[in-house]
TrEMBL record:
Keyword line: Acyltransferase, Cytoplasm, Iron, Metal-binding, Transferase, tRNA processing
Location in the cell: Cytoplasm
Broad class of the protein's primary localization: cytoplasm
Organism: Paenibacillus zeisoli
The UniProt record lists the keyword Iron: yes
Name listed for the protein in its UniProt record: tRNA N6-adenosine threonylcarbamoyltransferase
Chain sites annotated for binding substrate: 133-137, 166, 179, 183, 272
Main EC class the enzyme belongs to: transferase
Primary role: Required for the formation of a threonylcarbamoyl group on adenosine at position 37 (t(6)A37) in tRNAs that read codons beginning with adenine. Is involved in the transfer of the threonylcarbamoyl moiety of threonylcarbamoyl-AMP (TC-AMP) to the N6 group of A37, together with TsaE and TsaB. TsaD likely plays a direct catalytic role in this reaction.
GO molecular function: iron ion binding; tRNA N(6)-L-threonylcarbamoyladenine synthase activity
Annotated catalysed reactions: L-threonylcarbamoyladenylate + adenosine(37) in tRNA = N(6)-L-threonylcarbamoyladenosine(37) in tRNA + AMP + H(+)
């Protein structure tokens, strides 16, 4: 099968053609980061307009690069949610028009299912498995008993990891998106600031990062009030250590509790060097198989949407032309065969 996939949930416009849910024939990504940088974050209205500007040409280009003639496509897939409603709508309108014109089925796809199934673009997944999803808008532990079945066993109660990284980075004086700057600084730092860990209830798989973020802001303010210069690298390292310790510990605990065979790390923060290293080291010690997609498939891209949509194609679960954008689409409800 050949799926043409479209992703416009946030600030990346992306179109891809994926064969059999695994093989990427084309994957064009246009990042709007340079545009949003000036505002210190993603401006929804601006994001929508940028998607409109590039989507048509990208559709054409992605099909051309794939070498597949449009009538050979099996379906047109598009991110239905979660994401920014205006941004999602641009992709959905484009996908609907194309599906209608080519007389192909439409597949509404879950963005986080995409982040998880990005793993399948490089390797088959064994079930049951646990996915640790760490991105700009999500921090979740997902149990998959079998293919395409998602059960949320933990989630953040406030900020997502990526969001916390970006907010802390901003306070430390770095541009948007600041995650990679904090990551780099944490590695160079000689000292580490002592910052709290948020474990929540002893058996909880939920996360909370807003307290840690506040603690960083307090350290900065107090240092400045004393007329001293804050040790920025030490704060970055302390912050990163706190985040990583909690993520790793809860992911390992979820693996033990469920007896899952693999741990998948996915989402944009999976690019974090400290997290990759700490998780790899710990999984090695515990005898756990860890899977992390290559960098290009960690951040937003349409190939991962094609990989997730393949599950729906196999089950013949298509969306009507009346499909709406769902900014709060539930991952569990998106499970195949439900
Ligand atoms: P969602 O997938 O939840 O809708 P999103 O698509 O905006 O959110 P992604 O594109 O998956 O999020 O990830 C972007 C986030 O990843 C940003 O917050 C960015 O700072 C963070 N990030 C990227 N690289 C790193 C890194 N090396 N260390 C920490 N964070 C990082
Ligand atoms: Mg993005
Ligand atoms: Fe994403």
């Amino acid at each position: 099968s050949y799926i043409l996939a479209v992703e416009t949930s946030c600030d990346e416009t992306s179109v891809s053609v994926v064969k059999n849910g695994r093989e990427v024939l084309s994957n064009l990504i246009f990042s709007q980061i340079e545009t949003h940088k000036a505002f210190g974050g993603v401006v929804p209205e601006v994001a929508s307009r940028k998607h409109v500007e590039s989507i048509t040409l990208m559709l054409q280009e992605a099909v051309e690069q794939s070498g597949i003639s449009p009538d050979k496509l099996s379906a047109v897939a598009v991110t239905q949610g979660p994401g920014l409603v205006g941004a999602l709508l641009v992709g959905i309108m484009a996908a609907k028009s194309l599906a209608f014109a080519l007389d192909k089925p439409l597949i509404g796809t879950h963005h986080i299912a995409g982040h998880i199934y990005a793993n399948r673009l490089v390797q088959e997944i064994s079930y049951p498995c646990i996915a640790l999803v760490v991105s700009g808008g999500h921090t979740e532990l997902v149990l998959m008993e079998s293919e395409g079945k998602f059960r949320l066993i933990g989630r953040t109660r406030d900020d997502a990891v990526g969001e916390a990284y970006d907010k802390v980075a901003r306070a430390l004086g770095f541009p948007y998106p600041g995650g990679p700057y904090v990551d780099r600084l944490a590695h160079e730092a000689e000292n580490s600031a002592d910052l709290p860990r948020s474990w929540l209830e002893p058996d909880s798989f939920d996360f909370s990062f807003s307290g840690l973020k506040s603690a960083v802001l307090n350290v900065l303010n107090q240092t400045k009030m004393r007329g001293e210069t804050p040790d920025i690298p030490a704060i970055a390292r302390g912050f990163q250590e706190s985040v990583i310790e909690v993520l790793v510990e809860k992911a390992i605990r979820a693996m033990r509790m469920t007896g899952a065979s693999e741990l998948l790390l996915c989402g944009g923060v999976a690019a974090n060097r400290g997290l990759r290293e700490a998780l790899a080291e710990r999984c090695d010690r515990e005898g756990i198989t860890l899977r992390i997609p290559p960098f290009a498939y960690c951040t937003d891209n349409a190939a991962m949407i094609g990989a997730a949509a393949f599950l729906k194609l196999q089950h013949g679960e298509f969306a009507p032309q009346t499909m709406k954008a769902e900014p709060g689409l539930s991952l569990e409800e998106w499970s195949v065969g439900s």
